[in-house]
Design brief:
- The protein has 13 helices and 15 strands.
- The chain has 2 domains: 3-127 and 259-344, Response regulator (Rossmann fold, 3-Layer(aba) Sandwich), CATH 3.40.50.2300; 130-256 and 348-365, 3-Layer(aba) Sandwich (Rossmann fold).
- The chain has helices spanning 16-34, 49-61, 76-86, 98-105, 129-140, 157-163, 169-175, 194-199, 212-224, 241-247, 274-285, 292-309, 316-321; strands at residues 3-9, 38-44, 65-71, 91-94, 122-126, 148-152, 179-181, 205-208, 231-234, 253-256, 324-327, 330-333, 342-344, 348-355, 358-365.
- The chain is globular.
- Strand 14 (348-355) and strand 15 form a beta hairpin.
- It is 35% helix and 20% strand.
- By secondary structure, it is α/β, with parallel strands linked by helices.
């Protein structure tokens, strides 16, 4: 019987935009390297925690998955990891800041201690909140005369994690000569942001992890109330074209963890470059590349190496603990991560900039990943009038 890699993908529901690159990576891996060695089984989460748990149960109980892969979703990724842990199967996941991930899966200790989450639990490859803060600070420091950063952070898991003393945001702001101004948490998807705009009066930079809809609502309120900003930095959904499009906000700076311009290759026999993977995705789907594509493919590289080295299901977790692999998303290293069970992914700062052919994600700072080319200068908002209609 083939060893099975189980995939929990968001094929339907609100997270389906993240399911598409994961499913493509699964099929690309199946064609190029899986063959008769490792089978791949995909189950839909329906973009909900309950659906994610059910997908894991079917992958393990019906399909015999020895390892589960997933990405995306503040609530779904932890649901997959917890379900896999209960069933004694390791889980490989990505695209959720590792501090948020660890807090959500319930390590029972501080998010910065070295306790294990392996041995049949979760193995995560991702950047941290501190990495986001550092990437953003490279952009904040380029706003002349700014003395503060406004924090548009919700009252949910993301906001709680961002407000933590060890998230790195206060330190990053301080290093850039700035202070944080936090109006307090807002209710996601229902806030109208009257209070937030009022309390951020005079602030020229805002940082956030808002949904596209919430960011658009905030910016509309800011424009109506005369709050002029030079720069917005936003992670989460603004890392994806669909988020940038739905927000309707020009010039947002967002983390860049993978792009066709990253100078990495697959560790598999195909030796795909980042550019080749992006081109293959666009050709097959008719849609533009997405950042999760590179991370998704990298997880299959890790699964391939791990399962190839393991001597039976009981040793898979131990192999993951020993994994350090140069992938299409860079080096993923579980031997020296920030905590056990986590491989850190480094970030550049990108900005959605308008060009003749539309809006593109350009890299404007890459201090933490000097091998990644910077291909544009940071554009600041036109402060002649409030709002975000024009960018220099």
């Amino acid at each position: 019987m083939d060893t099975v890699i189980g995939v929990v993908a968001h094929q339907t529901g609100r997270l389906s935009a993240l399911g598409a690159p994961l499913c493509f990576a699964a099929e690309a891996y199946r064609r190029s390297a899986g063959g008769s060695r490792f089978a791949v089984s995909i189950r839909d989460s329906a973009s909900t925690p309950d659906g994610a748990r059910e997908a894991v149960a079917r992958l393990v109980g019906r399909d015999g998955a020895a390892l589960v892969i997933t990405l995306g979703g503040t609530h779904t990724v932890p649901a997959v990891a917890r379900a896999a842990r209960r069933l004694g199967v390791p889980c490989l996941s990505t695209t959720l800041p590792w501090q948020v991930y660890r807090a959500a899966i319930g390590t029972g200790k501080s998010i910065h201690t070295s306790d294990t989450i392996g041995a049949g639990g979760g193995y995560h490859a991702c950047w941290g909140l501190d990495d986001i803060a550092t990437a953003f600070a490279a952009a904040w420091a380029r706003v002349p005369g700014a003395d503060a950063v406004g924090c548009l952070w919700n009252s949910g898991p993301q906001g709680v994690a961002l407000r933590a003393a060890d998230s790195g945001f206060a330190d990053a702001a301080r290093a850039a000569g700035l202070r944080l101004v936090d109006p307090g948490g807002y209710a996601e998807d229902t806030a109208q942001f009257h209070r937030e705009v009022r309390e951020l009066a005079g602030v020229r930079i805002v940082t956030s992890a808002a949904t596209a809809r919430d960011l658009r609502t905030f910016c509309d309120r800011a424009k109506a109330d005369g709050l002029g900003l030079d720069l917005i930095t936003c992670s989460r959904w603004l890392s994806y074209p669909i988020g940038a499009h739905e927000s309707g906000v020009d010039g947002v700076v967002t983390p860049v963890y993978w792009s066709p311009r990253h100078p990495y290759r697959s560790s598999l026999a195909d030796r795909l470059t980042c550019a080749e993977l992006a081109e293959a995705y666009e050709r097959a789907t008719g849609r533009g590349w997405l950042q999760p594509l590179g991370m998704a493919y990298a997880l299959f590289e890790v699964a391939h190496q791990t399962l190839g080295a393991a001597r039976g299901p009981a040793s898979i977790a131990a192999e993951l603990d020993r994994t350090r692999l140069a992938t299409i998303a860079g080096i993923l290293d579980w031997t020296s991560g920030p905590v056990q069970g986590v491989a850190r992914v480094r970030l550049a700062a990108g900005q959605w900039q308008r060009h003749d052919l539309g809006t593109a994600l350009t890299v404007v700072a890459a201090d933490a990943v000097p091998e990644v080319p910077v291909d544009a200068q940071l554009r600041l908002a036109d402060r002649v009038r409030p709002g975000f209609a024009g960018w220099n």
